[in-house]
Amino acid sequence: RKVAGARRGQLVGQFLGESLLLALLALVLALVLVEVVLPAFSTFTGKILRLDFSDAGLVLGLLLIGGVVGLLAGSYPAFFLSAFRPTSVLKGTGGAGAARMGALRKGLVVAQFAISIALLVGAAVVHRQLDFVQKKDLGFDRELLVKLPLRGDLDTRVETLKAELLRHPNITAATASWGSPGSFAAGDDIRLPGSEATWPTNMFTVDHDFVATYGLELVAGRDFRRDFPSDEQEAFLLNQTAAQDLGWSPEEAIGQEIWWDMWGRDGEVKKGTVIGVVQDFNYKSLRQAVEPLVVHLYPSYGQLSVRLRPEDVTASLAFLETQWQQWAPAWPFEYDFLDAELAEAYLSEEKLGRLSSAFAGLAVLIACLGLFGLASFAAERRTKEIGVRKVLGASVGSIVGLLSKDFLLLVGLAFVLAVPVAYLLMQRWLDVFAYRIELSWGLFALAGAAALVIAFLTISVQAVRAALTNPTETLRYE
Asked: Could you tell me which of 293, 267, 278 has the C-alpha nearest to residue 187?
């Protein structure tokens, strides 16, 4: 076109115009896709999200994004290719700028794959951490435990209600409490006799069956017992962390006197004796280390926990609902399974895992598109070389290896750049959890291997096509 008299300004206008048109068409397609996906994404995030096209600022912003992308994408052919001298172009060379732009293309591919590998590592770490927290032994039995809120005056009739429920063969245990694993624990202070120094702790007020129903393990002393009437006024259980904070071993804690500054009752102090120490259990999220806990018999209950047998859970729930309608007809029947309640604590991490997987897949796709274009470009430029090599006896495999080698080196470089960044970012994310997995090099190696295989498959499509082309056609090229 330059030989035919086209001026550089005309070429710049054409290239930029074509690029802007493509970018705006892509913008329209993107908006259609967003409108289709937005309802499902709103459900996923739990927020109402929408595009308001009556907002002039939004429309102008979207047009600006499309325009900027179009200008950036079209700037290379518009300002660099249009500057080449016709003699260089017609001889098949691109001048000094071609080498620079080749480096830019390779740099973009490295950046795309580095981001893809980092996202693959991130998705793998998030999923492994989620699997860890969901399967970790929390120190109590969380399976088939149903929690029901105690409404109205049910907390005053809880022993009779429990006896009625335990008549069902599929209900093995029941306990009433204020605070429990997966639910809140009241923050309170305890102190030693005659001392003004206080120790912050968490408090569960429970009935006699709490330890047995939740499957807690005693490491010293005994559980609450009905044949010890004094337990209802004077007995305390500590977890190991609480005993340690007070300076006692589990065995030393037994028989020690502690005072409880009761919440909501100014100046009232309940004095009692430690009768047992339970093994530490994670009654809060695994983002937090186990905190001191005191368990005390006290008739202030907010919920009923019922353990079911695995046989016919549906029938057991139907029985609970029937009993609820008899005992609390003014209140709706509500229940939660403890394992589901615990899983909800990690809902944000679960969403993050699904989003990171989606974005990793999208990043890999975009990186493969760039690599595919670069491989096509390289195969096109080396058409004659491939024909000569085939005439001289080169196999399809050797030609595929020849075309793939340089690109796989780019992916290797992307892996080297991505690893330290991904490691630092995921270490910071894992630091949120008191209980966490350790980053293993196997995760990074797996992500790198996956990127390498995907890249090779992407390149091999063009490489095999070029290698299978008839040499007589390639040698007549140009």
From this structure: 293
